[in-house]
Amino acid sequence: MTAAPNQAHRQSTESLNVLLRQSIEALAQGGPNTQHAANELRELVSSPPRVAVIGRLKAGKSTLVNAMTETRIAATGSLECTMTVTIYDEGAPARADIIGLDGKVNTVPLGGNVLTDLGRPVDEVDYVRQFVPIARLRDLGIIDTPGTATLTVENEARTRRMLIDGSKDTQRASSWADAVLFLSDSAPRDDERAFIAELGMTPLTTVGVLSRADSFGPGAFGHEDPLEMANRYADRIGEQLGASVGVVVPLSGLLAESALTGRVNGALARDLAALASLDREQLIDFIEFPDPSRVVEGFNAAQRDELLDVMGEYGLVYGRSVAAEHGPGGLLQWMRQTSGIDRLTEIITQSMPYYATLQRAVRIVDALESLANQPEIRDHVLWVQSVLQSQPQMNDVMLYRSFKNTVADSPDSRLIPQLRAVIQGATPAQKVGMPADAPAERVTVTLRQELAELRELAMTPLSAAEDDAREHLIVAYQAAWKQLNT
């Protein structure tokens, strides 16, 4: 996954969104039988892309949501609320719509507070949609989930109902996810890999997060920085997940949340700086003694517990010298960079929106195909489909669809790296996996070789997804050739 967007991707995103909105308005003109589906799809394309945060129970999902939004909006202590799927969208006044399985909606004003009471039994709730006036949510909505393969079957069922079953239901289009953050504190389990595969995403719309990386291995008091260990281990997890994720980012959710939600102030930084002169054994005693003033004069248990609550053991061990040398401003900068949240934020706000838009467009294409199976609206839907897919903006969408289907059907296909390079690349050179400034002659030779090999593949056994991908790659390479020689 690339770290930053390019101008071509930004323009493609804007152009594609306009086309999708026009197509949905055309769908709505088909009469009462198309209007409900059009209303759901209209709300979908009028909202920013949504990223779903998934992982096991207590994986740190709500903590990450708080860090991403720079606001403590996700309940981390209310078991009832963390057992429901919650969609966070930008909006005012702050409120929560609690959607029941019976279709009834109860609206609860939030007034700047965290939702702690659903007002009805959790097993009667479909999902919760919160509207909060947070600028971050204007560009990327968030779906917080109760977890996968958790201690209770019901929790996974709620997540599955929204992210997997719901993605096939046009009537739930307005709540579809366009990208995924997968949290895990260890090597991925078989059931987690299977769940990710069922989501219908690609490595370009799925980021792995190695949560609680600050306690990795022996933890903060080990002989090696646990975050450095986690960085090395993240690459191994990425290999184990194969084609499921694009990158795995180690993260200290606690440091990230504390830094971005205003929990660090001058007083806390001064308290942390007071620990800078302690050696390892003294710091352990400071944490474990009921009375910390035995180690640091003037410290009480409440101060010590506040430090641990905000910084964790890792923050105390590795952040105390930063606080002493650079004060609260330097400490905040260190927490953001060290925690991994800046790197993760760059990925999900810069490169991911383009791929999430392609993912969304593919789902709209799939939804139209499903609607075309209804005899009473078939002709109108087929007309909308034909007009939509004849537009040049849809070339990238159909290429991405081939990529998505190939990842799902043939995850070891040799075509996957080629598909990924074409989708990510902005120049002919990048589309064949070469540096953007590669000489035109070399790019031409590579394109010629790739086209020849793709044509030869027609004579070999391929899955249906691979054969479709091969044809779309040929079209993409031919377009790159034309662009190079124009």
UniProtKB/TrEMBL annotation:
<protein>
    <submittedName>
        <fullName>Isoniazid-induced protein IniC</fullName>
    </submittedName>
</protein>
<dbReference type="Pfam" id="PF01926">
    <property type="entry name" value="MMR_HSR1"/>
</dbReference>
<dbReference type="InterPro" id="IPR027417">
    <property type="entry name" value="P-loop_NTPase"/>
</dbReference>
<dbReference type="InterPro" id="IPR006073">
    <property type="entry name" value="GTP-bd"/>
</dbReference>
<feature type="domain" description="G">
    <location>
        <begin position="50"/>
        <end position="198"/>
    </location>
</feature>
<dbReference type="GO" id="GO:0005525">
    <property type="term" value="F:GTP binding"/>
</dbReference>
